[in-house]
Amino acid sequence: MKSSPDIATRLDTTLATGAFGDGNLLAADRDTLVAGQSWSLRRPAPVERPASGLEALHRIAERAERDRAGADVSFTSLTEGDGDEGAATDPTCPAPWAEGHRAWFVRDWDHARTGALLRVTRQVMDFSGYTGAIDGHAPDHRDGDAVSAGVALLAEALPRTTAHTLPLVRVLCVLRGEIPSMYLTQVPESVFLSDGLLRTHSPLVVGECLLHESLHEKYTLLRLVRRLVRPGQSDTTGPRVLLPWSLTMGERRRFGANRLLSTLHVYAHLTALHVAVLASAAHRDHHAEARTRLTTNYERGAYLAQALRFPEIAGHLGPDGLRLRDWLTEDVLGPASAAGAADGMSLAPYPTGTWNREDLVSV
């Protein structure tokens, strides 16, 4: 059996290569798609490599505007208020990010661009049933230090995966609210973090949240440029699978094929992160926390991998979706389980007790 450090290194390489892991390849495919959309709409293509936070916000708004055209539900445009006084000023400041790549914090929420961004965020969250307050927060040095520590941990634990995931995000929005972190498809290339997360949690948790939300952007790109689900697939009208751990939170959440695959994508990566942290003596201070989080992420990821093999669900996956499921299951969760065993951990899918497939799947 390979040692945990060897497995961690192999996982890092796996998650940064190939059709699903190579972030540079995905970014190139994304930009080709966006250029084609721009040509068909007879509009200039968004700048590919923003030199400032304001340019990044313009790019995000342009990408969102193209995505809104085919959305079932449309929210306020991120370009709203562009003609307002002061719209040409830059409402951002540099944020610590992956080596060799630039990202920016939103520092001024009264700017036309960031005000529109905050309105869309509130609209999306209100539509989803969230009733809490959401307000913009201007990050200070403590917030920057927390992000820097989280990014540094990721770069040390999974250097290749970090380099092929975080650069897909350009803007970090710090909010005052109850949700530690989130990603919205309506605001691409951006992640949202709470000031509470940055002020009260360890670098491991901050790093996990940064990776988690950046992976949603990566999956969004996969959804755009790979055939993950069959044409016409819908998570709202198609078959869905119960997430049994949601019952412990007072909810009964059910996901369709696309969201099951997206969530497996996240949990498999987070499993690899905690395997890598546990394999490194440099992260000894985080080992106890990493063991707990490894168990949780593996349990959920392995359950989702099983659910994506249910015939009712697998039939809604496209050819690339089937390959992505198998890649995450066999090349990520499989080695992670072996690493856990080498460290005396018995990792297993989330227990479903006496439930059968009919209890878990709603058609």
TrEMBL record:
Record region (Disordered): 71-94
Protein name (Swiss-Prot/TrEMBL): HEXXH motif domain-containing protein
Species, as recorded: Streptomyces toxytricini (Actinomyces toxytricini)
